Structures are given as structure tokens and as C-alpha cells.
């Protein structure tokens, strides 16, 4: 398709957009009475219009039923988490029995590490990406220290080549080969939060598995954004937050995946609680833990239904749309954003560059050479919500569910004024 950096062209794309009706199903912030251009769904997704109804439903059940809401609410609380399995499995490419929802992301990674980081005198190293999201860095280092090791000796950080912004798959595979049977675990973010690079998860997982290590993925920036096939890729475990592309609200419940090969095991290392106990016997209050036969065995406490409600509301929308349709628009709108950025750069000789590679999802990261943070502040003050990352990067995420091509064009006009000023 031949793009044009004009309002008429952007509006023509919107007219043909199969997802255009979904824009009205999300609540946009307003600045001085005008709806903002919202390109930060990779940080916090917008509120779906049905989210409050789902929360209110629980509040009313609590008001009217009290404790009986656990069993007699319209959506009983005691098995609320089970409502996610079918729909969420389609988003992440898993069997319904392999996914569920609980806690928050870093908590779930810690809990899953209990099962999948089992260091021995021979296998004790962890392969991760250099400058991973800070929470992952803290989590990994603390896990290593908990097991009595020095993170400097145990954590092997994948490196980018000098002068390059992104990781090369061949370098990752070489590291896997080099570390070999000293590695107990490979744990990487499926999409790099800083550049938006999508890792070749299938290839990397296969290479790590041939070396006998467990493989996990932090999918915070991947779920609801890119095509995933966790089961077919033979991934051992994964976890993700739900408040970015999944639009579940700030700090809401985390999703997780545990490959079915680990289901039904009573001897797997795991921190256990009564919500992971066999559902049929849970309220018999037996002293011995009997795990659920699926990923729900990793549940610990009562389902946080108020936190889960917006997530379930958003999943209804994802189930309507389907990932294939969402990805088709994603590719087009991100390509148009890149075209507009290049057009502006050529027009005013702007000193900036897109550092996101071709292997990408919804996000483009733009390195602003010499401009500093003033451009970011100008955009925000003029109704364009974007994300700033040190030292000099603006992250842009035109989420296909609710962003329009006209948003992209109008962003370009504001950016041009910011650079000129």
C-alpha cells in the first residue's frame, strides 16, 4: 500500500478499518475537554466500557449476598478464575487447562521460579536479557541469592553488539550453546520493553530445550499484542500482567501458563495454598494438599475477583475480535506510524531514529538525538500521551483496538511542531 501523510488518507484508512467500531468501547482521557491521542497502551491500556459493569456486578453481589456470593453470585467467586481459561488460551496459544489468572506479574514469576529454577552443583546459571525490565532483574537476583549464589556468577546476560540497539537471534543461540549444561533456566521478556523488539521465541525455546534447561517467558509486553503459541513452542512456563494491551486496569491480576506436562504432579516443587487444592475436596479442609489437575494447582489464595473483573470484561472483547484480526490492523497502523515519522524526519531534517526492528508488535521506540525531554513534555501538554524512557527514547504504541489512523496523522502534526519549536 502506498501511504500518504495527509488527513484525508488517514481518514480513508479509518473508513475501511474492520475494528473502527471498537474505539467507542473504550474511555479516553480528555485534556481541556478534548479527547487525547493515546499511544501508551503498552504501559496502561484504556478502560473498556463494560469493565465497570463487571466490577459493579461483584459489588452488588457482595451487598446482596454477602459470603454466599462465593457460590450463588451470577458469576460465583469461588471459581471466577476458571472463566478466563478458554478465552485466554486463544490469546496465548495454549490449552485451556494450561492457563489461569492470579496475583500480579512479579509475584507469579517468583512462584513459578519455585518450580522451574532448581539449581544444582552442575546446573545453576540463568540466561536472561541484558537490561531486562528492572522488576525482572530484581526478581532474578533475589532468587539467586535465596539459593545461596552470587548473581554476578550465576546470571548470564544476553548482550547486544556494540553500537546496536537490538539483540541478534544468532548471538542468543550462541550464548545458549556456550553456557550449555550449566544453565538451569532461560527467562527472557518476549518483547523487549525498551525497543519493542519481538524475540524469536520458538527458535530460542527449542535451542534452550535441547540443552536441557527450563524455559520461561515474561510476556508483559507480548500478550494481546503479538501471536503466541506457547504450547506448540514447548515453553515450560510464562507469566504476564494484564493492564497493558489487555486493558484490565492498574495493577490488576496476572495471567500465567504452565505446560501440561507438569500437571497432576504432587512432587513438583511448588508453593501451595488452598485454592490450588482439588476443587472437589477444597472445602473438606483436609490436612494434605491434593493439587488441581491443571495449571490451577499453582493457585494459592482466594481469587481476587474485584481485580479480575475488568480483565474478564476485556477478554470478552478480545474473544469477539480474535488475534488474527487484531494483528492485521496492528501491522498496518504501525507501518503507517513509521511512514509518518519518516515523512516528518525528511521534511524538517529531524534528528531522530526508530530503533524498533522489523520484528515488532504494536510499539515503535524513537530515539531523539539531541532533543532531550522537551519534546515529550510538548507532546503531553498538547494532548498526545506517549511514554518516556531514559536516556532519550519515546515509546509509541498505537493499540489497534482503540487507536485510529487519524490519531497517527494528528500525532505527526504535533510532533512536527514540537521538533520545530
Could you describe the 3D structure shown?
The protein has 421 residues and is an alpha/beta fold. It folds into two domains: 7-35 and 322-420, Aspartate Aminotransferase, domain 1 (Alpha-Beta Complex), CATH 3.90.1150.10; 53-321, Aspartate Aminotransferase, domain 2 (3-Layer(aba) Sandwich). Helix content is 36%, strand content 14%. The protein contains 13 helices and 17 strands. The protein has a seven-stranded mixed sheet, with helices on both faces. β9, α9 (201-210) and β10 form a beta-alpha-beta unit. The two termini are 32 Å apart. The model has no long low-confidence stretch (mean pLDDT 96).
Give the SSE map.
Layout: H1 7-15, E1 26-27, E2 30-31, E3 34-35, E4 37-38, E5 47-48, H2 51-65, H3 69-72, H4 85-92, E6 99-102, H5 105-116, E7 125-129, H6 134-146, H7 151-154, E8 155-158, H8 169-179, E9 183-189, H9 201-210, E10 214-218, E11 237-240, E12 254-258, H10 305-321, H11 323-348, E13 352-354, E14 364-368, H12 374-381, E15 384-385, E16 387-389, E17 393-396, H13 405-420
Parallel strand pairs: 4-15, 7-8, 7-9, 9-10, 10-11
Antiparallel strand pairs: 1-5, 2-3, 6-12, 11-12, 13-14, 14-17, 16-17
Helix pairs in contact: 1-13, 2-10, 4-10, 5-6, 8-9, 11-13, 12-13
Shape: globular
Give me the CATH superfamily of the largest domain: Type I PLP-dependent aspartate aminotransferase-like (Major domain)
Low-confidence stretches: none
CATH topology heading of the largest domain: Aspartate Aminotransferase, domain 2
| Number of helical elements | 13
- Summed over residues and divided by their number, the pLDDT gives a mean of 96
- Tell me the count of domains: 2
The string of secondary-structure elements, in order, is: HEEEEEHHHEHEHHEHEHEEEHHEEHEEEH
Oligomer: single chain
If classified by CATH, what would the architecture of the largest domain be? 3-Layer(aba) Sandwich
Give the structural class.
Answer: alpha/beta
Widest beta sheet: strand line-up: 6-12-11-10-9-7-8
Rounded to an integer in angstroms, the radius of gyration calculated over CA atoms is: 22 Å
CATH class of the largest domain: Alpha Beta
Biggest sheet architecture: 7 strands, mixed
Could you estimate the helical fraction of the residues in percent? Answer: 25-40%
Amino acid at each position: 500500500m502506498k501511504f500518504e501523510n495527509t488527513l484525508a488518507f488517514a481518514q480513508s484508512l479509518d473508513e475501511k478499518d474492520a475494528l473502527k467500531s471498537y474505539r467507542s468501547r473504550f474511555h479516553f482521557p480528555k485534556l481541556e475537554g478534548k479527547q487525547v491521542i493515546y499511544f501508551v497502551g503498552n504501559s496502561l491500556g484504556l478502560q473498556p466500557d463494560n469493565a465497570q459493569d463487571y466490577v459493579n456486578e461483584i459489588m452488588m453481589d457482595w451487598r446482596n449476598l454477602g459470603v454466599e456470593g462465593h457460590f450463588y453470585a451470577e458469576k460465583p467467586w469461588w471459581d471466577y478464575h476458571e472463566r478466563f481459561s478458554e478465552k485466554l488460551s486463544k490469546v496465548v496459544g495454549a490449552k485451556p487447562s494450561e492457563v489461569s489468572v492470579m496475583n500480579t506479574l512479579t509475584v507469579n514469576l517468583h512462584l513459578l521460579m519455585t518450580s522451574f529454577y532448581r539449581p544444582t552443583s552442575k546446573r545453576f546459571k540463568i540466561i536472561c536479557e541484558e537490561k531486562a525490565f528492572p522488576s525482572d532483574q530484581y526478581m532474578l537476583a533475589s532468587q539467586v541469592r535465596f539459593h545461596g549464589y552470587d548473581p554476578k556468577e550465576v546470571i548470564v546476560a544476553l548482550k547486544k553488539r556494540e553500537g546496536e540497539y537490538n539483540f541478534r537471534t544468532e548471538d542468543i543461540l550462541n550464548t545458549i550453546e556456550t553456557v550449555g549444561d550449566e544453565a538451569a533456566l532461560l527467562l527472557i521478556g518476549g518483547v523487549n520493553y525498551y525497543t519493542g523488539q519481538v524475540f524469536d521465541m520458538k527458535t530460542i525455546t527449542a535451542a534452550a530445550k535441547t540443552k536441557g534447561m527450563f524455559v520461561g517467558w515474561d510476556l508483559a509486553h507480548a500478550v494481546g499484542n503479538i501471536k503466541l503459541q506457547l504450547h506448540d513452542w514447548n515453553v515450560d512456563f510464562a507469566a504476564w500482567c494484564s493492564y497493558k494491551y489487555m486493558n484490565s486496569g492498574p495493577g490488576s491480576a496476572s495471567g500465567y501458563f504452565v505446560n501440561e506436562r507438569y500437571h497432576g504432579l504432587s512432587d513438583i516443587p511448588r508453593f501451595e495454598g488452598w485454592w490450588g487444592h482439588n476443587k472437589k475436596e477444597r472445602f473438606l479442609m483436609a490436612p494434605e494438599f491434593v493439587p488441581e489437575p491443571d495449571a490451577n494447582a499453582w493457585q494459592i489464595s482466594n481469587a481476587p475477583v474485584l481485580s479480575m473483573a475488568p480483565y474478564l470484561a476485556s477478554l470478552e472483547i478480545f474473544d469477539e475480535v480474535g488475534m488474527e484480526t487484531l494483528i492485521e490492523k496492528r501491522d498496518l497502523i504501525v507501518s503507517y506510524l513509521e511512514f509518518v515519522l519518516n515523512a516528518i524526519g525528511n521534511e524538517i531534517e529531524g534528528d531522530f531514529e526508530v530503533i524498533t526492528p522489523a520484528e515488532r508488535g504494536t510499539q515503535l521506540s524513537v530515539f531523539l538525538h539531541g532533543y532531550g525531554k522537551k519534546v515529550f513534555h510538548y507532546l503531553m501538554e498538547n494532548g498526545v500521551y506517549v511514554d518516556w524512557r531514559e536516556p532519550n527514547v519515546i515509546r509509541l504504541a498505537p493499540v489497534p483496538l482503540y487507536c485510529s489512523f487519524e490519531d497517527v496523522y494528528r500525532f505527526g502534526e504535533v510532533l512536527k511542531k514540537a521538533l520545530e519549536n
